[in-house]
Every structure is written in structure tokens, then in C-alpha cells.
Amino acid sequence: MGHLFADRAEAGALLAERLLFARDPVVLALPRGGVAVAEPIARRLGGVLDVLVTRKIGYPPTPELGVGAIAEGGEPVLDLELLRRLGMTPASVAGVVEQERMELARRVAVYRGERPLPDLTGQEVIVVDDGLATGGTARAALLAVAAAAPGRVTLAVPVGARETVRALRGEADEVVVLATPADFRAVGQWYASFDQLTDADVLRLLGER
Q: Which positions fall inside the Phosphoribosyltransferase domain (predicted)?
């Protein structure tokens, strides 16, 4: 198994070439990793770059297991079937949802301050992440964007799990993905360099636009 991309910047540059149909887009990156992919896309397309902050809602005993997600401007999107299999209800994760709302608000304040999201009404919007595993945060992001009445929405990722990509095709006008490997286990396995970004990294990338 080889790496598909040297790093997120290379992945974003390759992805940008598949997005040349977009005219004056608003490029919304899912922080933190998605920002490093989105910056070269926004630069290549001459679009506005901003973040759309999302947070995974974790299963309380094992927070790494996502049972849903929340995006700024949207309501929690829960995997009800997974919750049922775990013997839980939406009320069971209400405390986690509240914690993630607080962290989401903190990150919005750090990344954007008092500035609101760009007006998406009638706009060409590209939602970008560094990959799709379960797709929970991407789904929450797309629902939040759809509520803002955009003209057209594209989800763009360098790599994703096949089933997840297939499931999300109904959530956007178009899904652009460079690779859907059969042996997908985690997003990071397809990058030679997949360092975790910091808030400072996000601000630096946003400041380059």
C-alpha cells in the first residue's frame, strides 16, 4: 500500500484541477485538516476561503467512535441506527452535544472572531475536508450549508471510503473525490505527511488569502 499524496497541500492542488467548473466559489474548509487542502483550491479558483467549524459527537465510553456531528449554524446530526445498536438514545449524548457546542463556539471565535460566515445565498459553495471516513462531520456541514440557501454545493475531498462517498452523493449537488481505495481504513494512511494542524496553522492558512 503506497501513499497517494505527499501532504494536504499537494492533495488540494490536485483536487483544484477537478474543480475548475466552479466560478467565484466560496470555499468552506472543515478545520483543522481541511483548511490545508482548501487553501490551494481557493487560490487556484480565485475563491473566498473560510472555515465551517464542525465537531464530532463521540460515544461517551469511547469518544473516538463518532455517533454524530454538529456544524456551526446547524443542529446535531446523529446516527440513530448506531445509537440504537449501542443501546442509547439522543438523550444519552445530550451532555456530549453540549460540550461540543462549547468547543465549536470557541473555535469559531478563534478562527473568525466576530466576523460571520460569508453570505451563502445563491452562491457556488465548495465544502472541503482532507478525507472521508464515516462522513459524519461532512454530512453535518452539508446540512448546515443547505440551510443557507446556496446556489450549488460541491463536496470535495482527496480520498474517501467508498460506501461513505456513495452515501453522501445525495447530500450535495456534486461530490468530487480523487480516490476511493478498496482497503480504506483511515484518512491518514493515504498521506506521507499527515501532521495534526494547530489553531495557529489554521489562522496562518486563512491569513494567506
A: 22-173
